[in-house]
Specification:
With about 500 residues, the protein is mainly beta. The protein has 2 helices and 43 strands. Strands 28, 29, 30, 31, 33 and 34 form a 6-stranded antiparallel sheet that branches. Strands 2-3-4-5-26 form a 5-stranded mixed sheet, with no helix packed on it.
Length: about 500
């Protein structure tokens, strides 16, 4: 009789004896969020291939963007992106100073985040805010101030840094997460995102709040204040369907919005205004899981893609060709792979969705057994695992500039479950649940193979009033391995959090 093991993928991304018996822990300091995994998935930066977090310079000639975990300056005339930062941590969410001389941004090492200012003339970097808690979303205010979000007093709230004195002052806010603060040009009002659901404008003189827009589970909403302080651009989910929309609302007339882009299965993210207020920039991932840059007129019109012609890296590059095999299978074996350069910075293969594991702090991706990726020249560390029965294998390899290094890694499972008559499965996971990509059932094959799963029952989810992925409900693999059938997640008050299959 064939037996079945169900295993939750998220609990053992890189299983080692040290954590085999441990309960789930969080590397980031907890900040009063009930489910910290949602905070990390919705509020912390997204590591991407391709431009994200576009920030136009004050003169409109350059975009600062994040890609591969570093910052880049994209010349809008030549369309060449030049690498600006090159450390081991991951950099994101840049914002320019009013005079264009500095960029403030977020730095993330997988266990903590802090705020850095880079002088563009000298290249010097200064850490301006770094507590034990999570910091997010810095932006320049008036008179040398920097506004940001921090969990230093528990829930993530809004803070203002006086750079002259080095003193930070908290701005009262409600909810477990208040972030993305932006001050109007006259300094009278503060716009920010509250919880995961609201865009709020506060009168800084009276402390009174107005809700400009409100929804449910606005996981990828990143509001952007217009240069004149009268409008806000943001992305919000469709009322029906799985797509998201880029909209603009007036701060004086909350509730009335204008659709600029999105709909269908589109997912425009991270809007930013041009300094003249004529355009709104945003990013969106393609079917290859690579982000691309777009802009649309702020008054409505055709969406334009702005392709990056070239990426000029700070260090010479080489190519790593990785082949993974297993003693229990023939030929290349699908696997879960983590790659880091000599500085500890994560590297991943283009077209392979990067994933972050909050338990180990590793960025990883899934491979079919053969992967080729560009890496900074020098020593590269590769960590490979597969499912629950193959112990982690770690190898280092030197990659020369302009050359290719080949690395073969053999996994040695401690138990051949299939030969012993066992099958493995995962009965509760989601294909899309508020994330930055639009994935389809075909995208699961590499993941399921990398985890050695024989049976999978992904669940469509009801996100409050939104019914997600209804087109996949009941979808099956048609008898092909791994046996896959979509069910539905139900949060019943009586039965608790359950999954229904075949109903």
């Amino acid at each position: 009789m064939t037996r079945l093991i169900f295993a939750l993928l998220a609990l053992a991304p890189f299983l080692t004896p040290a954590i085999a018996d441990a309960q789930w822990t969080n590397r980031y300091t907890q900040v009063g969020q009930g489910h910290h995994v949602y905070l990390e998935g919705y509020e912390l930066p997204t590591l991407t291939a391709g431009p994200m977090d576009a920030a136009p310079s004050p003169d409109g000639s350059t975009l600062a963007v994040a890609s591969e975990g570093w910052l880049w300056l994209l010349d809008l005339e030549t369309r060449v992106a030049t690498q600006l930062t090159d450390g081991g941590a991951m950099d994101s969410r840049p914002k320019w100073s009013p005079d264009g001389s500095e960029i403030v941004f977020l730095r993330d090492d997988g266990a903590d985040t802090w705020i850095v200012v880079k002088d563009l003339a000298t290249g010097e970097e200064s850490v301006v805010v770094n507590t034990d808690a999570i910091e997010l979303d810095p932006s320049f205010g008036s008179e040398g101030s920097i506004w940001y979000a921090s969990g230093r007093e528990g829930p993530i709230g809004i803070w203002r840094l006086d750079r002259a004195t080095g003193t930070s002052t908290q701005v009262p806010s409600s909810g477990r997460v208040s972030r993305r603060p932006q001050v109007t040009p006259d300094g009278a009002s503060l716009l920010f995102k509250q919880s995961v659901d609201q865009i709020v404008v506060r009168d800084l003189a009276t402390g009174g709040d107005r809700v400009v827009y409100e929804g449910r589970i606005m996981s990828q909403m990143e509001p952007a204040l217009s240069p004149d302080g009268t409008r806000v651009a943001f992305t919000a989910p469709q009322a029906h369907g799985d797509g998201w929309e880029l909209r603009v609302a007036s701060l004086d007339r909350p509730g009335s919005t204008m659709l600029l882009a999105g709909g269908g299965d589109r997912l425009p993210l991270a809007p930013a205004w041009s300094p003249d207020g004529d355009w709104i920039w945003f990013s969106e991932a393609g079917r290859d899981e690579v982000f691309r840059l777009y802009r649309v007129p702020a008054v409505g019109g055709a969406v334009e893609e702005v392709p990056v012609a070239a990426w000029e890296h700070a260090r010479p590059r080489g190519t790593l060709r990785l082949t993974t095999t297993s003693t229990t299978s023939d030929g290349p074996a699908p696997a879960r792979v983590s790659v880091a350069d000599a500085r500890g910075h994560p590297v991943f293969a283009t077209g392979h969705q990067p994933r972050f594991d909050g338990q180990t702090g590793r960025v990883f991706f899934y491979t079919d057994g053969v992967a080729e990726l560009e890496v900074p020249a020098g020593e590269v560390t590769v960590t490979v695992a597969r499912g629950l029965s193959s112990p982690t294998v770690m190898r280092t390899v030197d990659v020369g500039a302009g050359s290719r290094a080949d690395l073969a890694v053999e996994l040695q499972p401690v138990w051949d479950a299939r030969a012993a008559g066992w099958l493995s499965g995962d009965q509760h996971f989601h294909l899309n649940y508020g994330g930055p990509y639009r994935l389809e059932p075909a995208d699961m094959s590499r993941i399921l193979a990398g985890e050695e799963l024989d049976v999978a029952t992904p669940l469509v989810a009801n996100l409050h009033e939104r019914l997600g992925e209804q087109e996949w409900f009941g979808w099956t693999s048609g008898g092909r391995a791994p046996l896959t059938r979509f069910g539905q997640e139900v949060r019943s008050h009586f039965l608790g959090h359950i999954g229904l299959i075949g109903t």
